[in-house]
Please model this.
Amino acid sequence: MRRLWPALLPLGFLALWTAAVHQHWVTEGIIPSPLQVAQSWHRWIFGTPVKSLSPYSGTWLAAVLYSSRRVLQGFLLAAAVGIPLGLFVGWNRLVARLVDPSIQLLRPVPITAWLPFAIAVFGIYDASALFLIGLGAFYPIVVNTTHGVRDTNLLLLRAARMMGAGETTILTKVVFRSALPSIFTGLRLGIGIAWTAVIVAEMIAVKSGLGYVLWDAYYVGRMDICVATMFSVGLLGFLSDRALQLLARVVLKWRTLEAHA
Amino acid sequence: MSDRPVVELADVSKTFETSGRRVEALHRVSVAVARNEFAALLGPSGCGKSTLLNMVAGFEAPSGGDVLFDGEPVRAPDPRRAVVFQEPALFPWYTVLDNITFGLRTRGVPAASYRARVEAFIEQVGLRGFESHYPAELSGGMKQRVGIARVLVMEPDVLLMDEPFGSLDAQTRSVMQELLLSVWERHHQTVLFVTHDIEEALLLADSVSVMTARPGRIKKRLEVGLPRPRSLEVTTSPAFNALKREVLALIREESMKAAVEGGTSVR
Model:
C-alpha cells in the first residue's frame, strides 16, 4: 500500500484530466484526452503499420537523439570549462577578482535573452544551440564548484602541506576531492538547465529535435504531440538526473558511508 | 650529530589582531627541544600553546623572535616537521591505507621501498585489517591511530602533537597514551607534545614546560626523571605524585594571580 502512495497524485491528475475532456469542461478540440496523447505518442514512437506521410509517425527516436546529443555536448562543454574555472576562482584570490565579477554580472541575463545574439553570431546551426545549452549549464557548475572549493577544511589543507604536498597535489588530491559533492550539485542543476535550453534553442534556432517538434506541432494544431513532447522532455530530464545521481553515488562512496556512520 | 636543539624558539611573541583589538597570545617564549627528546607543553586552554605548535609546523609566522628548526628559520610546512592534530584531519575520500601513504606518495617515493615499513607501522598502531576502511567507518580512537601512522611512516625529524587525544574518551585516551609510549620506545622520535592534561604530560614526556595564560609564557620547565620504559602504572608511583604536586602548585599560583588581576577577591 505504501508503495502506491507516490502514484496517488499522478493518477488523480490523470482522472481529473480525462474527466475535464469528456465532460467538456475545456474547449473541445484544443485539449486532447490522456488516451489520445498516449495513442499519438505510441504512433510517434513506433510508427503506423502502413506507411504514413505524417511527420509524427515513427520519428520520435530521431528527435530524442538530436536533443539528447545537443544536451550532452553542451553539458560536457559547460563542465569542461566550468569545473576547472570554478576550481581556480575558488582557490586563487587573484583569479577570483579577475573573473568572478564578470560571471556574476552576466549570470542574471536569462539564456532565453541570449537567443537573438546566438542566432546572429552562430546562425541557424547546432553551434547556436550548443552555445545556449553550454552557457545555461555553465553558471550553476562554476558557482557550485567555487563554493565547494572555498568550503575546503583548513585542517585538511594543513595536513596535506605538512605531508609535503605542493599546490598542484593539493588542488587535485584535496581541494577537488573535497569540492566534489558541491560540484555534483552544480552538475545536476546544470543538466536541468541544459534541457530547458535545448527546447528553447530548437524551437527557434535549429530545425530538429524535440523543441522543434513541439513548436511545429503547436503551429499545426497538434496539441496531442505537444503534450507527448512535454512528457518526453520530462522523462529525459528525469533520467539524466538519475544517471548523474548514480555516478555521484559511485564517485562519492565515502560520503554515503559518512551518512550512515 | 651536533648537540644543537632540533627545535628552538627564541623570544617568540605572537599578536593577533581581531576587529581592531590587539591580543597578545604569546609573550617572549623560549623553548628548546633536543634530539630524541619527548618535550611537553602544558597549559590551560587559551595559553597559546597550539599557536606555538602551529608556528613550529610553519602554518603561522611569529610576530617577533625566531622559530628555528635544525638552526634554520621555519618558513613553511615541511614533512620533516610532521603534525598530529587534535581532530584527526584525515582525508575522508581515501581509505586508511591511502591516508597513511599520502605523504610518501605525494613525494613520489616508490611503493616498493615503503611497503614493508608501512605494514610495520600499521601493525604497531593496531590498524591491521582496517587498511581498506574509510575514515567514516572508524571510531575516534582508530582515526587518531591513522593520524599517527601517516606521520610515522614519513620518518620525520620531529613529531608535533597538538592535544592528539584531547577529543577521545578517558579509556581510549589511556590506550592511545600507552600506544604512543610503546611506539616512542621503539623509535625515540623527537616529539613536541601540547596538552592541558597534567598526568598525560608527566606520563609521556622527558620534560614538561608549564605555560601561563594570556599572554602565554613559559613559567617553568620541569625534568621528568621517571624511568623508561613507562606504562600507565607509573602514574601511581610516589615520584609521579610528587611531580604532579609541583605542577599543581605552579598552576594554582598562576590562577590566583589571574583571579587577583581579574578583580576577584581571593582568600
Q: What stands out?
A: Chain A touches chain B at residues 153, 155-156, 158-166, 169, 173-174, 177-178, 180, 252-255, 257-258, 260-261 (CB under 8 Å).
